[in-house]
Specification:
Layout lengths: L14 H14 L5 E2 L11 H12 L12 H15 L8 E4 L2 H12 L5 E6 L4 H8 L3 E6 L10 H7 L4 E7 L11 H12 L5 E5 L15 H4 L7 E6 L12 E4 L2 H12 L7 H12 L3 H22 L14 E2 L20 H12 L1 E2 L1 E2 L9 E4 L4 H16 L4
Parallel strand pairs: 1-10, 3-4, 3-5, 5-6, 6-7
Antiparallel strand pairs: 2-8, 7-8, 9-12, 11-12
């Protein structure tokens, strides 16, 4: 009898975490490493949110709570959806978990059976396919392309749906590309979904507030209200509120689905951190001026990175609408040889050579389902970004045919 489950043979560790860990190990060993792999703002959590956590501790709010969140936080989530997305929910339609990833995992575990398919647009967040596999489902990858700015078309979605499709996972602005769908672009997708009433929609809106250049965020159930009864709208406080380590994600959807997710969570982690929940209440209900200030910094960093990467030989980098990532193509360097003697046959080899020869850590495109590319997180200092991009330029310029 072997120790490990066969389920683990279907999945792989997170490539983004692996890159971050490798960069940290090299840095700890004394190497000059610039990590551009982590999807984490470098801003501190705003003071009024931290103060709310301190107050909760002082008041003794440190005990177990209801499995999927305190009443006050669920009410704050309902108010947020009404205020920002024109979506009306009651607290019994809300689930709160230990991060956005757990929300998605709970929903998939609660709904997928063997043979169920989940349509996932590529490029995708690295965890989507593996969570589907862990839950016993089958990921169906619908390939977008740089020609559509990495956004899925209605025809591509239509072609990916079968009688076995249970979920369509939607993410805008996107990790890893930063691409955001306009109202009209999303309406084309929701029109397709209306023709397939057996398909549920899982909308990952984690980067909702990180939108630039006048881009207007929208979410599927807002664009097509008739999808409301089969949509799980998910979000969290990690990115916009710089609360990654607080681990609070949330979602709203049909009562039956939320109850099933609660059942899964009751036998896994139980309630998310009590103190973090009270901090999240303040994050959602309190002042949000800092988001616009942070976004100004993100726009400056995005423009810096896009300009410098487009100046690198063999690299082409679109301008994203949101999040804090860019997803440049390296088709122009495939087949070349680096100064260190590495032949660049694919984007994973490119990323490894870049780290070994220049100390710049990025995540290779194959991890996100579309190659040849790599992902840069520009959620770090201007100085680090300038130096990293300069090293990438030198790395590419030194390649030979």
């Amino acid at each position: 009898m072997k120790l490990l489950s066969d389920t683990l043979d279907r999945v792989k560790p997170s490539p983004t975490i692996a890159v971050t860990n490798k960069a940290q190990e090299l840095k700890a060993a004394g190497h000059d490493v610039i990590g551009l792999g982590a999807g984490e703002p470098d801003f501190d959590t705003p003071q009024h949110i931290k103060d709310a956590a301190v107050v909760a501790i002082a008041m003794g709010k440190t005990k177990y709570t209801a499995v999927d969140g305190i009443k006050e936080l669920k009410e704050a989530v309902c108010a947020k959806f009404k205020r920002d997305n024109k979506l009306s929910y009651e607290p019994n339609q809300v689930s709160v978990s230990s991060g956005g990833k757990q929300i998605l995992y709970n929903a998939l575990m609660a709904t997928l059976n063997e043979g169920d398919e989940v349509v996932i647009p590529a490029p995708y967040w690295v965890s989507y396919p593996d969570m589907v596999l862990l839950a016993g489902g089958t990921p169906v990858i619908a390939q977008a392309s740089v020609q559509t700015n990495y956004k899925l078309t209605a025809d591509q979605l239509e072609a990916a749906i079968t009688p076995n499709t249970k979920w369509f996972i939607f993410n805008s602005p996107s990790n890893p590309t930063g691409a955001g769908y306009t109202w009209d672009e999303l309406k084309e997708l929701t029109d397709v979904l209306m023709r397939h009433p057996h398909v549920w929609v899982m909308s990952d809106d984690m980067y909702e507030f990180l939108a630039y250049d006048g881009f207007k965020f929208c979410t599927p159930a807002e664009v097509e209200p008739r999808l409301y009864d089969r949509t799980l709208t998910t979000n969290g406080v990690s990115k916009a509120y710089a609360m990654t380590g607080w681990r609070i994600g949330y979602a709203a959807g049909p009562v039956e689905l939320i109850a099933a997710m609660r059942k899964v969570q009751s036998q896994s982690t139980s309630n998310p951190c009590t103190i973090s929940q009270w901090a999240a209440v303040e994050a959602l209900n309190g002042q949000h001026d800092f988001i616009a200030d942070n976004n100004e910094i993100f726009v400056r960093r995005r423009n810096l990175v896009v300009d410098m990467l487009n100046a690198a030989e063999g690299i082409s980098c679109p301008v994203p609408e949101g999040a804090f990532y860019v997803y440049p193509s390296i088709s122009g360097v495939i087949g070349k040889t680096s100064a260190g003697g590495t032949k660049i046959e694919n984007d994973e080899i490119f990323a490894n050579a870049l780290l070994e020869e220049t100390g710049v850590a990025v995540v290779f495109g194959a991890a996100f389902g579309l190659s040849p590319n790599f992902r840069v997180s520009y959620a770090t200092s201007d100085e680090a970004l300038k130096e990293a991009c300069a090293r990438i330029q030198t790395f590419c310029a030194s390649m030979t045919d």
